[in-house]
Amino acid sequence: MKNAEISARRDTAISRGVGMQTQIYVARASGSEVWDVEGNRYIDFAAGIAVVNTGHCHPRVMEAVREQTEVFTHTCHQVLPYENYIRLAERLNDRVPGDFAKKTVFVTTGAEAVENAIKIARAATGRPAVIAFGGGFHGRTFMGMSLTGKVAPYKQNFGAMMPDVYHVPFPIELHGTTTEDALDGIGKLFKTDLDPARVAAIILEPVQGEGGFYPAPGDLMRGLRALCDTHGIVLIADEIQTGFARTGHLFAMEGYDVAPDLTTMAKGLAGGLPLAAVTGHAEIMDAAQPGGLGGTYGGNPLGIAAAHAVLDVIDDENLCSRATELGSRLKQRLNEIRERVPEMIDVRGPGFMIAAEFNTADGKAPNPDFANGVRAEALKRGLVLLTCGVYGNVIRFLAPLTIPDAVFAEALDILEASIDAVKGA
Ligand code: PMP
């Protein structure tokens, strides 16, 4: 089979609404490498968009799933429950940031975790409104899309958004927006548009993912915590992309001195199986009526079994410190390249949630062509990269945290050659 043949079939079979970054049809994947149907090998710096932080088909994750398939694969926890679901909740309640009693609900996708976090915050506060940030990404369901702070392609042509969702600017000093601007924005919103007594929740990513890998400054997080405490608002950290060792911590919020009330998780939680969760303050989590939360597949046994193995692997293989080590090596290399590539205006990110941002050579305008050019060149040379950012001018690096040193070094050489090729073109 050829990639091009499958791709042609894809064009007639699949909605064009499902975007595609490559035309590489996967035959198998292992660790940080992927092989396509034509036998070509790629180094994977996407990790299924920050999902296989523990690597493709980690033997311990595969073994846990295999063992689970041998006993049962689905009973629906609301009908016939199982113990490993409770035990995973206990582990998350213990590990999610926040020095208070916590409870958990399992769902299936990131967007669903976001939906549920908002439902829970609304039930707990009896209030309707939600504040989110420009450039934030929270999913493609109706509330997720409404909370997302980017119009094209996420909101375009999809009609009315959910009511009572308000966006404020996210502080990005590189683009001239400070924490003070962001907090002022909320202050003004409270004066002009929205009574704080109507606000159920403020939601943000500790590091904006799709929006461009911009870390939330510590003073923003502290300011939001204070605002939420003053007005009785639920603070939600969307850790769907930042979670599970990616930022050098199990959760990015461990890098801040304040805790959120609720945390949404998905992606890295189950190392490639569809599992998501909301964990937070026990009394807030209990606000929903029995039957108000859940779903047929929420906390599916295969995902639960995988997640236990993922948590074990993260601890046993010290993947948090590995993330920091890999990230600092990557940053160092990018900063060296930057000295001769003025288009690369910034290199940033905690742990191994690293990005490089590209502008025109005069530094003035976003340069998505450069970022996309590097992505395309790298792909030709066997390295899968992803772009992101409201202007599409950021390359994000999300390799599995288990990547061996030799493969990592090979990837960095390809990256450098790809940037040089675009620079020289
Ligand atoms: N929130 C964040 C921060 C995300 O990065 C994503 C996925 N990119 C989502 C929510 C939505 O998750 P899913 O695609 O699993 O619905």
Question: What does this 3D model show about the protein?
Answer:
With 425 residues, the chain is of the alpha/beta class. The chain folds into 2 domains: 3-54 and 318-424, Aspartate Aminotransferase, domain 1 (Alpha-Beta Complex), CATH 3.90.1150; 62-316, Type I PLP-dependent aspartate aminotransferase-like (Major domain) (Aspartate Aminotransferase, domain 2, 3-Layer(aba) Sandwich), CATH 3.40.640. Helix content is 39%, strand content 17%. It contains 13 helices and 17 strands. Strands 4-12-11-10-7-5-6 form a 7-stranded mixed β-sheet, with helices on both faces. The protein has a 4-stranded mixed β-sheet with strand order 1-2-3-15. Strands 13-14-17-16 form a 4-stranded antiparallel β-sheet, covered by helices on one side. The two termini are 33 Å apart. The model has no long low-confidence stretch (mean pLDDT 97). Bound molecules: 4'-deoxy-4'-aminopyridoxal-5'-phosphate (PMP).
